[in-house]
Design goal:
Blueprint: H1 6-17, E1 57-59, E2 74-79, E3 85-88, E4 92-97, E5 100-105, E6 110-114, E7 123-129, E8 132-137, E9 141-146, E10 149-155, E11 165-167, E12 170-174, E13 179-184, E14 189-195, E15 209-210, E16 214-220, E17 223-228, H2 239-246, E18 260-262, E19 265-269, E20 274-279, E21 284-290, E22 295-301, E23 306-310, E24 313-317, E25 323-328, E26 334-338, E27 343-348, E28 351-356, E29 361-367, E30 375-379, E31 382-386, E32 390-394
Length: 395
């Protein structure tokens, strides 16, 4: 074993201590290309607004006093299979999954229909057009329900993603190979509307958002598409790419939801905690922030309040990006957030926690076991929650 002479050790420590934590040379005009901003809670400009009021939620789902009422309890309506979807009509609601469709009438009647499909083929969408009910499969087969049976309208022979756009008599399909196809229900003709590159991302039941000229569609959490609202052609623009070039807070690559439009800006919300309000036409960023915490869910009100749910906090920004409210919810593994006026409700695997957003105090807890995926549905002032195993109603 070799030994190091004490003189060499002493010389080494003298060199290290004189380096002032950096070994090397610094150019005279050196400036860092990236800086780390102070977390927003330490911003001296943060001034809380004591009383905020949320008259109506417009994203990700419309919630107002006409379709939302207070509740004190929760009841289980029925058990369902995993990946079951639900859609409400005036006098009934439909459940569909894999190769089964069930209709439940509010007068108590129900119908169950088994659909004969190919292996690995499944129902991905069910909708109503001209008082008739249609459904689509992931093999792009279009069917029509007829009482307790069904008929095949047309097989378009395309493998498609599980979330088509349906507008009146038009269906926009998105193939797994990056093509947009328009189906006209008046004549069942199909036409190609352009192609797109598919980036890596999470598939989910994202909703499309519209402006006066365009339709915004999130194919997956990393692939944002823009379609012309009149022709449904894919537009060759790169809004997400432009934002990532101009942003100073990081890369948007895992969007929580389809960007929505408010006061001339699109709101981009990334699961990682990045938020940016961006106008892609003039390439202007109104405000942006990195909250340094993963975003679980969000609400956006008609008066411009962005309400964020993280694993630790509830955070509220106004339309100018000013932090106006923040408090810790102390809920383990929160799943989603909803509510209006002064009350917000946070779901978790253990139940529903209700808070007064102004006093920051918990005002109610309803014990119930949920799975980690939870969808909110509103129908005739009734509030329904659906997880992977059950459908519930709040009463």
């Amino acid at each position: 074993m070799k030994t190091i002479k004490p003189q060499l050790l002493l010389l080494f420590f003298i060199i290290i201590s004189s380096c002032n934590e950096y070994i090397g040379t610094i150019e005279e005009n050196y400036e860092p290309t990236k800086t780390i901003s102070d977390i927003f809670i330490n911003d001296n400009t943060y001034k809380e607004i004591d009383n905020i009021f949320i008259p109506e939620i417009i994203y990700p789902i419309a919630i107002n006093e006409d379709n939302f009422r207070n509740f004190e309890n929760i009841s289980k309506i029925q058990s369902i299979r995993q990946n079951t979807q639900i859609i409400f009509f005036d006098d009934k609601y439909y459940l569909y999954s894999e190769n089964t469709i069930s209709a439940f009438y509010f007068d108590g009647n129900k119908i169950k229909i088994k659909i004969d499909l190919e292996q690995d083929e499944k129902i991905i969408s069910l909708f109503e057009y001209k008082a008739e009910v249609y459904f689509l499969t992931n093999n792009s087969k279009l069917f029509k329900l007829k009482d307790e049976s069904y008929e095949l309208i047309l097989d378009y022979e395309i493998f498609i993603s599980p979330n088509p756009i349906i507008i009146d008599n038009i269906i926009i399909l998105f193939s797994v190979f990056g093509e947009a196809i328009e189906i006209n229900l008046n004549n069942n003709n199909a036409s190609n509307k352009g192609s797109f590159l598919i980036n890596y991302g999470i598939l989910d039941n994202y909703k499309s958002n519209k402006t006066d000229e365009s339709i915004f569609y999130l194919y997956n959490s990393g692939t944002l598409l823009t379609l012309d609202k009149s022709s449904y052609l894919i537009k060759n623009n790169y809004y997400l790419e432009d934002l990532n070039i101009l942003s100073n807070i990081g890369t948007f690559s895992d969007l929580l939801d389809t960007p929505f439009y408010y006061n001339n800006y699109f709101y981009f919300i990334d699961r990682s905690g990045l938020i940016s309000t961006f106008n892609p036409n003039n390439l202007n960023i109104h405000w942006e922030i990195d909250i340094s915490n993963s975003i679980v869910d969000y609400l956006f009100s008609i008066n411009g309040y962005l309400i964020l749910l993280t694993f630790d906090d509830v955070i509220v920004y106004n339309k100018n990006g000013e932090l106006i409210k923040i408090f810790k919810h102390n809920i383990e593994n929160p799943i989603s957030i909803f509510g209006i006026n002064e009350e917000i409700h946070i779901t978790s695997e253990k139940g529903i926690n209700s808070f007064n957003i102004n006093s920051k105090t918990q005002i109610n807890f309803i014990k119930n076991k949920f799975t980690t995926k939870l969808d909110l549905h509103l129908n005739n002032s009734n509030i329904y929650l659906k997880d992977h195993k059950h459908i519930f109603i709040l009463e």
